[in-house]
Write a structure and sequence with these properties.
about 475 residues, Urease, subunit C, domain 1, eight-stranded parallel beta sheet, ten-stranded mixed beta sheet, disordered N terminus, 20 strands, TIM Barrel
């Protein structure tokens, strides 16, 4: 794809622009623009870092011929874990390698997490995480991780909001690790966040049910990966979501449920939304495309993740929830490890948990969702751009093709067929859960704030060009 064609080379073959007399810095010409409202053919004009025009016959100093291609708002992955300690391991990518891979998949913004602890303040966590992100090549925001149960520290939420944090992550599980927040603390935290117009994001699994099931394991059960889904069944998800939804109803906080995996979880979310409660939810590609059968396979340890994979019936419930709007976005929960890091050590509880996925988010959801007939094309930018931008406070700067927004844009060839191969992906891991899967549709170019940073398999962005984006526009 010849991405930079000078206007002077084309002037003899084109009528003068009917929209602007002065050329834009970049014009994406003749593509099919895809928004949640409509799909139409047109030109997109970029001036500096912003989208400046949408129309016909625009002229630019540089032009991109997008004829026959889809033009989408830059993808926002609202749930990633780059350069993150998980137990005794650390993810195999950092903010440079992780965001470079993300750009290859059309992702122009990631929302990662601060690394919380009971000893550090939220502002200290944010400052440390900004240092970690110094090499990022695309823009980034953070959810603030709230670990355990605080006492009289709710005032830190206001400080974090002033510093640009719009969402706060809580756990109803991982009590063994000290991560769990009990209902008493959640009640007070949610009240404070409601006053601040901030969002409470929850990893929702019922810790007491999980612990009861773990205590009933028989000798030898730990040596089977099948014990992972058995000790964290869907009832854990449904029960925990039900609890935090009630707290959200009582406090008025905007609640967001991370990585919903099951029909049970969807049912609780649907009831809450049908009652008009400010509750949103996400799922991930792995829960849409993989099921618990992989835990019986030879490579089962590679698929360790929490919550675990479910059944085909749960997958169908998730796809249905994407179609009808019950689920507001798809994110990856990207948490990449190598085969060596996931080497079997005798127990399903001795593994680092998480799967890679930031680079394959858009291609998978287009191929299996749109091309697969499961979701309409217009739903794609809602789930991958506008949805996360609105929920996490980045809209209207991010998440759309609207004039005045950041020129974060993806050019996507919906006709391109290819196979996922770990060797050819940019993610620095030697494992993809989708290895060998045939994909319909491929990212051709990624533009971040008006700069072409990825084109036809090559990366052109500068190290550290990514910027911290405040999550306070909700």
């Amino acid at each position: 794809m010849n991405i930079e064609r000078r206007t002077s080379r084309m002037a003899g073959n084109r009528q003068p622009s009917t929209v602007n007399r002065q050329p834009y810095d970049i014009v994406i010409r003749g593509g099919t623009l895809v928004t949640p409202e409509k799909v139409f053919r047109g030109d997109l004009g970029i001036s500096g870092e912003k989208i400046a025009a949408v129309g016909q016959n625009l002229s630019g100093r540089k032009e991109i011929d997008a004829t026959g291609k889809l033009v989408l708002p830059g993808i926002i992955d609202g749930h990633t874990h780059l350069d993150t300690p998980i137990g005794v391991s650390r993810t195999c990518d950092d903010f440079l390698t992780g965001t470079r891979a993300a750009a290859g998949g059309g992702v122009t913004t990631v929302i990662d997490f601060t690394i919380g602890s009971p000893e550090s303040s939220l502002l200290e966590d944010l400052a440390n995480r900004k240092k970690d992100a110094a090499g990022a090549v695309i823009d980034y925001a953070f959810h603030a991780e709230v670990i355990g149960r605080w006492k009289t520290r709710e005032g830190e939420f206001a400080e974090a909001v002033r510093a640009g944090i719009g969402s706060f992550k809580f756990y109803t599980a991982y009590g063994r690790l000290g991560h769990r927040s009990d209902n008493g603390f959640l009640f007070h935290a949610f009240k404070e966040l409601a006053e601040l117009n901030a969002l409470a994001m929850v990893h929702a699994e019922d810790d007491e049910i999980i612990e009861s099931l773990l205590s009933r394991l028989q000798p030898g059960d730990e040596s089977s990966m099948l014990s992972l889904p058995r000790t964290r069944p869907p009832i854990c998800e449904g029960s925990a979501i039900n609890q935090v939804v009630y707290l959200a109803e009582e406090t008025g906080v905007h609640l967001h449920i991370a990585h919903i995996t099951s029909a049970a979880g969807i049912e609780v979310l649907k009831r809450a939304r049908n009652r008009g409660l400010p509750v949103t939810g996400e799922t991930c590609p792995q829960y849409l495309l993989l099921n618990r059968e992989v835990f019986a396979g030879e490579d089962a340890p590679l698929y360790s993740l929490m919550p675990p994979l479910r059944t085909p019936a749960d997958q169908e419930a998730l796809w249905s929830a994407l179609r009808d709007g019950t689920l507001s976005l798809v994110a990856t929960d990207h948490c990449a490890f190598t085969r060596k890091q996931k080497k079997w050590r005798g127990s399903f509880m001795n593994l680092p948990y998480g799967l890679p996925g930031v680079e394959t988010l858009l291609p998978l959801l287009y191929s299996e969702g749109v091309a697969g007939g499961r979701i309409p094309l217009k739903v794609l930018p809602r789930l991958l751009a506008e949805g996360p931008a609105r929920i996490f406070g980045l809209y209207p700067r991010k998440g759309s093709l609207n004039i005045g927004g950041d020129a974060d844009i993806v050019i996507f060839d919906s006709e391109k067929e290819w196979k996922i191969s770990t060797r050819k992906l940019k993610m620095p891991t030697d494992f993809s859960p989708y290895e060998g899967r045939t994909i319909n549709g491929k990212v051709i170019a990624t533009i971040s704030r008006g700069e072409v940073i990825y084109e036809d398999g090559g990366f052109a962005g500068q190290v550290g060009r990514g910027r911290f984006v405040r999550g306070d526009n909700r």
